Amino acid sequence: MFKYNAGFDSEFQTEALPGALPPFGNNPQKCPHNLYAEQLSGTAFTVPRKENRRTWFYRIQPSVLHSPFRRVEGGMDVGSLEGEGFRVDPNQMRWNPMPLVEVGENVTFVQGLKTMAGHGSPNAKTGLAIHMYTCNTSMIKQACYNSDGDYLIVPQKGTLVVQTEMGWLEVPPKHIMVIPRGVVFRVEVSESSRGYVLEIFKGHFDLPDLGPIGSNGLANARDFEYPVAAYDEVVKGREGMTKEQRYDWKLINKFGGHQFETEREGTPFNVVAWHGNYSPYRYDLTKFCCINSVTFDHPDPSIYTVLTCKGDDVGTATADFVIFPERWMVMENTFRPPWYHRNCMSEFMGMVWGKYDAKEGFQAGGASLHSCMTPHGPDYPTFKGASEAELKPQKFDKGLAFMFETNVILNISEKAISAEHRDVKYFKCWEGIPNTFVGMEKEGEGKKKKRKKGV
C-alpha cells in the first residue's frame, strides 16, 4: 500500500494500471482504458513555468458526480479570523496537552480540528490559521478537501494513514505531511490521536533558500516522499440504484472558512494514473540535517527551517515551519539555550515528544504563543544552569519541538484563550528572576560620589 516517489516539487508520473497514462499529451481525444482526464491546478495558468503547479488525473469517473453543496451549521467555521470569536492579546500564552477524545466518543480528523489562532482571510487568499486536532475514528465513506489553502500536518500522538487522490501516505509522529489546496483525502487512525495543523491561505510551501550554506543541508529535496497511484474499485451498474444507494460517499469542503457538505456518486479515490508536480507529500523529520555554530554564538532559529511560505517582502515569510531536533552543541563562550528576545514575528510552538531545552513545563502535545514584540525566553533555572555549565560538546537528544512562525500579529480564538487546558500561570515561570548586577558594588566609594555629582 505504501509506496513513494522521492524529490521535492518534482514532476512525477505514476500509474496503478499499465498503460493508463497517455503516451503523449495531457488530454487526448480518448484516454487509455476509457478513463476521464481531469486537471487540478494549484496556481494560475500563467505564472512562470518554474512556479506552475498542476497535476493531470486519469480517473474512472470525474469529480463532478456530486449533489449540491450545503453549508453545515455547527461545523468548522473560521470565516473571519478578525471577527467574533477571535481577539488580539499580547500576553505570553501556553497550553497543556489538548485532552484526547473521551472513550465512547467517535471523532474523525475533520470533526476534531480546533482553531487556535490566525490572521487574514481565506476569501482574499491572505494570511494563515493554526489548528490542533484530536481524533479516534477513521473516516469511512467520507472524504474532505480544503478550498482555502494548504495544510501542513504535524502528528504528535498516533499514526495517520491518509488516502489521497494521488495514493496513500502513512504519517507517524516525527513526520509531517502537506496536503495542498483542493486535494481530496481521508484519514484513518487506529488509536486516539493528536497533532497540529498550519494552514496557509496564499502560496505554497517551499524549501528555504540556503544562501551561504551552499547546496546541501537542512531538509534535502530527495527525502520528501510522494504517493504513487492507487485506486478504489468502482461499483458498476448504478443506474438501477436509488439516489441514496448511488450517492453513498460524503464529501466535506472547507470553503471561505466555512464547512460545506455534499454526497457524491461513488469513491473520489478513483484515480488510476496521474502526472504532475502538485501532490501531497510527507517528510521524516529525523532526516533533517542541522547547521550550527562550531565556534561561538547561538545562531538565529531560521537555521532550523524545514519549509517556508514566502511573503511579499524578500526574506520575510507568511509562515515558516521550524524544528528543534536532536543535535550536537559545541560552541564555546556561548549561552546555548534560546536567549531572551523580542521578535517582529509571532511564534506558535508545539512539542512532538520529550522536553524543551529552554523551559520547564512545556509538555508534548502542548503549545505556546509568543506574539510580535512580546518578550520571552528561558526560565531562570534554565538561564542559571546554562550560564554556569561546563561548555563541553553536548548532544541534545531529549525531545523534538517545532515552531510555526509568521510575520503577522495573530488573532487568538476565544475558545483557545478560555480552554480548560490553558496554563494561565505561564507568566509565573519568569517571576523571581533576580537582579544580579554587580557593577556598582565593584566600584570604589569615590567613583560613586563623582557619579552622583554628574562627573
UniProtKB/TrEMBL annotation:
InterPro entries reported in the protein's UniProt record: HgmA_C (IPR046451), HgmA_N (IPR046452), Homogentis_dOase (IPR005708), RmlC-like_jellyroll (IPR014710), RmlC_Cupin_sf (IPR011051)
Q: Which residues form the signal peptide?
A: none
User: Can you provide one Gene Ontology molecular function annotated for this UniProt record?
Assistant: metal ion binding
Which annotated residues bind Fe cation? Answer: 341, 347, 376
Where along the chain is the active site annotated? Answer: 298
At which positions is homogentisate bound?
A: 356, 376
Q: What is this protein called?
A: homogentisate 1,2-dioxygenase
Q: Source species, please?
A: Triparma laevis f. longispina
